[in-house]
Amino acid sequence: MMNRYLKFMLSTALFLQIGVTGAALAEDAKPLAGQHLSVLLPPWGTLPKEMTDAFTAKTGIILDTQTLGWDDIHTKIVTSTVANTAPGDATEVDWSWVGQFGASKWYQPLDGLVSAEAVKDTPTAKIFTYDGKLFAVPYNNDFRVLIYNKTHLSKAGINTPPKTPDDLLKAAKAIKDAKISAYPIGLPLSATEGTSTTWYLLTKAFGGDLFDKDFKPLFVDPQSGGYKALSFEIQALKDGLIDPAVTGLKDVEVQELFKSGKISFDIAGWAGNLAVYADASKSQVANDVAAALMPSTTGATRTIGLPEAIGIPAASANGKAAAAFINWMLEPETEIGSFKSLGNLPPRLSVLKQLNGEGALKDGEILLAQAAAVEPLFAQGTPGWYPEFSSAVATAINQTAKGQLTVDQAVQQIAEAAKTASQE
Amino acid sequence: MNEISSQRGSRRRNGEINLGLAFVVPVIVIMGGLVLFPLVSTFVDSFYRINPMRPGTPFTGLTNYTDLFKDAAVQRSWINTFYYVILAVVLETLGGLGAALLLNKVRYGRRFLLAAVILPWCLPPVVNAVVWLWIYNPSYGLLNGLLQSTGLTSAPVVFFNDPKLALLLVTIVHVWRMMPLSAVILLAALQAIPQDLYQAAKLDGAGPIKCFRLITLPLIASGLAIALSQSTVFAFNLFDEAWILAGSSLDTRTVIIQVYMFAFQNMRFSLGMALSLLAMFASLLVSLVYVLKVYRETRFD
Q: How many CA atoms lie within 13 Å of B257's alpha carbon, on the beta-carbon side?
């Protein structure tokens, strides 16, 4: 009796010992298990359920993704932060907000929290530093490339993509004359950010820059790249090569026009969008789309990088879980999954090369060649007054497109806005 | 006996005073906390520089206000706002009065007609604006479809490329939603007028226009002042319709949109505060005109 009793007690003790240790070990493997993480991202950052389920299975963290249009996320971040609440535990941080949010100290520095090796493999991470500290890590390697409908071009008798802005105009005219597309050139002219970034890109295409190193405007001179770029847009509009309705369209709406085959050139094409355009379930031009290097007057292609990243707001109560999420986003499998499902070009160089090696990157050679020619818009770092300046640019271009300003008046107005914004 | 009854009386009076206070204090606290305190705080902060991108909040006096007067975009947004206010108030009042007069005449089915009239007002402003955005769309919008099918235009029109047309179209969207409120207010005022006044006037030989001018208008003056005030204030605060239909385009930008851009886009909070206060004073001033000139206490005895 005693023996049986003793055996029972011993085995129970052993069982408890192993069981508790086992449970403790399991918890150590997922120290953040059961925590909730709210993530605020635009539509192209909202990963499909299979991927987020994999994250939860790996870390035990329950993800709550909020999707907001890009133009609205900035407002949400500002209003929440001013009210001393975190807009999310991890949020979108666009390259253009780095100056504002860095100066306001609204985001937590990530040095030491995220994988240093992955950050080193990500050239665009430099854009997200302020005062020497890293504030966000890119998840989307957006740079601009010329995306065009090669079927439209070949029907108009053109077999090579345009290499200069003049070639682009000639090709568009040929397509319009052949009645293949009523308005072949697609670019936004509404008072939104997409309009401004298209003009910056075309400024580079015309061999110019926005500012010199002291932030003095370089686009007021009629011989400058910026002036010529704006003249190019307005002339194309007047010649009937751009739909007059684009004064009310954002860049994502112009992309829908390309997907439906209504326009031939997505001028400021997002590099990652090639994958989306080539997907027959998402676009009607899957077999017609192709990429080409950005046209240039100088013979050497130039483009700008407008990457987006994820950062942790200073007011976030869940910094560790947010860092775990960011590290997971940096993993090669996640970047590849994000590319295949949402068209986010991987920011890590090694992953880009791997994808190209597998032949999974549509027009991969062009993309890699274009990636090599990417310049940041502001070599000195994005200033805090950039959003104010960019809004003034979009407003001026919108007014010029509606015939209320001449190109000359528009560039003067933009230069004035730059002066006012930078002096505040 | 008298002493006891007067003691009881004063205790009852104190009880009534305390009860009155108990009813009033929550309202005072809520109004104070949600209206008065933010108002005073905004007013005080508008004299400082509050910009999270820059350290400290130094006192800047009237600099914010002088900067606003010099800013061309702000001037344009004031012009747009006054345009909206004048047009919206005229359309809403005339339309509301017309609708109220018609509804007042209807004997059978007035409730259903009233419900139908109020329907646009029940729509959330953003939903209303999105619906009209589709109607105005150059490629697939109903308006372009109607104009082309009736032969009035031969090609799709991009309405928002013309600044004057853009302002008119935004106003129409706002008026479509807000007119029912004016109609309801004026209908209530019309229904309070005793019918024997009209009968007496008819006996004296007054025609319908004289009846309207000498009986109806003076007796609905209080309702008219309220309808005018609320039209003005809502038109001054126009944001949703202009923002959804045309974004930050300068052609349709209102003062409140400019406030939003200063504060939340450019992070210049105190500048936004100063402008929002100016908008408040402007709408208060205009409403004061109505209250002093139009409003009349009406008694029917």
A: 27
